[in-house]
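Final report, closing paragraph on structural work. Over the funding period we assembled a curated collection of sequence-structure pairs, and we close with a single example.
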Amino acid sequence: MKKSIWKLYGYGWVTLGFFLVSLLGHWVFGWFAYVDEQKQFGHPVEFAGYAMQMGRDTLENWQSEFLQLLWQIGGLAFLLYVGSPQSKEGNDRVEAKIDAILAAVDPKNAEKLIDEIDREYEGRDPDPRWAAARERAQ
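Its predicted structure, as stored:
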């Protein structure tokens, strides 16, 4: 059964809805403030002036908030995808130490035990030094 695009991207649709509602609210309430300000100073109410002012305010807001957040989320996701050092799990060092301890305590059975543990917890990256040692031993 194929899920609908609404369910597949539900979070994105809700986020887009919040974005559009807030953008619309910003422009609507900005219009009221603009009209009030123009009347207060006796200037004519012109849409071109309003659009210029609101466009500037919107871009300032996006620059300071929206783009910053976009970079934090998008940049982090990208760095995780490419495997930057900042995105690596902190357990690699501990796993390497445990593999070394197992090899020192029981050198004859260490390879077998490490292989069994790696198979049981499949999907985790074993220490490349022990993987290379196992390949040479085979």
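The chain has a mean pLDDT of 82. The longest helix spans residues 47-82. We thank the funder for supporting this effort.
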